[in-house]
Amino acid sequence: MMANKNSYKKSSFGPAFLFLEKARRTALADYYEFCRLMDDIADEPDVKNPEKELSFWKEEVSRMYEGTPVTDLGRRLQKDVRSFGMLPDRFLLLIEGMQADLAGRTYQTEQELEWYLLRVAVIVGRATLDILGVQGQQADQLSWELGRAVQITNIIRDVADDKKLGRVYLPAELLAKYGLTREAVLQEEMPPKLAGVLRELSARAEKHYQKAFSLMGLFPRLKMLPCKVMGYVYLKNLAKIRKEGFLVSVPVKLTKGEKLQSVFYALFKTIF
Asked: Which one has a higher pLDDT value, 225 or 97?
């Protein structure tokens, strides 16, 4: 399923892009479209051969860097990578993460989960910072902290939906600490002990958010606006999940109004 390249403008996140130059806004929209497309290939049931689709895009990324892309999106991304110095791993690691989803990869330890977080979240942060013109060791650290925080929030939020796909991202060691197994998470509606697992992960995510916000202070304020918006929106979502007690059968998400509150809070914190 192809995401509309201008869909970010229609979302609650739109104001975060208003202070960026057109070329950066366009590149972020293109990369966002790529991410959404890879995610849809891995998750949408109407994709007939997702492995083949991901293999095609892996080859298309190679063609982008060779100057011979065959898709409209590939041609747009080719211009973006040249303009902002984006490395191939910004695309290839994401594809590798989607391939892990399709293969049903499981994670025994939190260190193993880090392998996944790098591919589906941290690398997206690095690409975003490339486009924003923020690079270097501290930028990489920011992408690690914010990427971990956001993706752990996603994992907590989407436990019920992931179960429908036969996926459990919670590390087996952490589950065992609370007397649970992967099979129990998949078979039971919402095991009461699961709240303890998600609460511990939530506390870990909050520490990552705190470190990320601290690191944002090292960079130009307006360039950090998209990062601040992302951070405040997902942190507010995590707080809402905690308020609901973690054990819900459908993902707890923010309303459009709640998202906008976080967006304008980020604007306030950036400008004043």
From this structure: 97
